[in-house]
Amino acid sequence: QVQLVESGGGLVQAGGSLRLSCAASGSIFSIGVMGWYRRAPGKERELVASINRDGIANYVDFVKGRFTISRDNTRNTVYLQMNSLRPEDTAVYYCNADVVDSLRFRRRNYWGQGSQVTVSS
């Protein structure tokens, strides 16, 4: 089994910063693309940023220049540094990873449990 465990959410004032972490554990052979999504109240879940194993990152326009995604392959962990936070960034943030397990060598997509990020004005 593979699990993704998130940490780092919370409440912050507009203009502040938060850092989310997501650690993958279990029977892991390899991890491909890792990413962060979010779901704001009343909205669909949307992609925020993704990063491949070589560290090449992609961002959606509304976070470019404010958020930074990174990963530590030795720790099977992905991070999301969020700066200059805005009230509209309030959402539940979910990490996502493309994992090949070490038991059956099957590729599957996994999700973290979700972290609440609330930005007050």
Q: Give the strand content.
A: over 45%
Distance between termini? 41 Å
Number of strands: 11
Give helix % range.
under 10%
Question: What do the pLDDT scores average to?
Answer: 97
Characterize the biggest β-sheet.
Answer: 7 strands, mixed
Please give the radius of gyration in angstroms: 14 Å
Which structural class do you get from the secondary structure elements?
mainly beta
Keyword list:
about 120 residues; mainly beta; 4-stranded antiparallel beta sheet; about 0% helix; elongated
List the helices and strands and how they pair.
Layout: E1 2-7, E2 10-13, E3 18-26, E4 28-39, E5 46-51, E6 57-59, E7 67-72, E8 77-82, E9 91-101, E10 107-111, E11 115-120
Parallel strand pairs: 2-11
Antiparallel strand pairs: 1-3, 3-8, 4-5, 4-9, 5-6, 7-8, 9-10, 9-11
Please give a structural write-up:
This protein has 121 residues and is mainly β. Helix content is 0%, strand content 61%. The chain contains no helices and eleven strands. The strands form two sheets. Strands 2, 4, 5, 6, 9, 10 and 11 form a seven-stranded mixed β-sheet that branches. A four-stranded antiparallel β-sheet has the order 1-3-8-7, with no helix packed on it. Strand 4 and strand 5 (46-51) form a beta hairpin. It is elongated. The protein starts with a strand and ends with a strand. The relative contact order is 0.32.
